[in-house]
Amino acid sequence: MASPDRLLGLLPEGQVLTGERAAAWTGGAPARAVVFPASVEETQAVVCVANETGTRLLPAGRASWLGAGGWAAAREAVVVSSERMDEVRHYEPADLTLSAGAGLGWTGLSRVVRPNGQWLAVDAPGVGLGTVGGVVACGVSGPLRGRYGAARDNVLGLEVVTGGGRILRIGGRVVKNVAGYDLVRLFTGSRGSLGIITNVSVRLFPRGESDVTLRFGGGAAEVVEMARAACTSVLPVVAVEVETGGAGAEPMTLIVRLLGGPDEVDEVCSRLAVYVGAEPDAVLRDGDSEAFHDDRTGWEADATVVARLTALPDRLGRVLERARAIAAVMGGEVSADAMHGVVRVKGSPAPDRVDALTEAMSGTRAAMEEAGGTLTLSDAPREVAARVGWSGGVGEDGGLGARIKALFDPNSILSPRCP
User: Fold this and answer.
1) Measured distance CA(416)–CA(419) in Å, rounded
2) Which terminal Cβ of the chain has fewer Cβ within 10 Å, N or C?
3) Residue 49, Cβ neighbours under 10 Å: how many?
4) What is the pLDDT of residue 291?
């Protein structure tokens, strides 16, 4: 592999990390260096020299998702962080739109839009530590997407430096801006395999004046049935989640979030108890509710193994059973987005439980795929990932993914594949 010295010399010394400082920034993920371009032009210069020297690049924001899914484990690369590109370029509260550098952090975004009672409604795992560009590049979403849409639904425009060194400005800063191929959706969720995002334009939403979370407890079958009733009711619930421990752990907890005007939310609270057939064990209001859900975005943070099981929402009970069996092996916990059929399981297995864990995960993946679902590792030690695999079978795409990759990154200097 070519030496990155020429590439590193493009930027001032304060915008380059090497050696132990680079390893500290990436959290131990393998990296030859970390560079921090401060503009789209500097980013383009880095990409062009990388093409000339055959240097691999790995796009990143603040490194909070750098190793997720094994993305950074395949090779050493020069990490290109958008952290210095964090300015708000355009904000129009009346239009509920904002354009900012990809490196704008989530707390920085909140400081700008919250005084106007607005937010970018994304509650994906770990989002509070990440950047706007990282959310878009990874295409991550959480339970709020049931009301507000997935991340890709709220990205209006992007500025991207492709793997070939071209600067693309696609989409726009307004909601009604559709013409030609929708490249914004192509790049959203492409995980840096096609280009480096340098600027993002997004659609915002008004925050609910009243924020209430209801918690219901019960046995497994009871809570699954209550979750199904909440999801299929005509009531405007924002998110429905289930939380539990491993197999045999009782009770389960149903978590329902409501947002809106005070009168509307109070009415929904009373009607929801009728739909689910039980009174809530606890009611969290406004600041307490918001803090509770902010904390839940960090639910995975203390675990060494995190897996995601997905299936149709009407199979929630069966998927929860499989996830709880995995959690039991490693003394872990389970959290489910009942509206979308996404079940996460986390834990930190003891060394003598690795064999049992890999066997349980491999068997569960086979069963999930046979039923039309998936099991994907979000985080895992190298030994577990090597034996289980980060993801399972991949459907045939007729080579379309490879052709798209060749179009935007002809020399494959970025991540080697589309997600």
Assistant:
1) 10
2) N
3) 17
4) 95
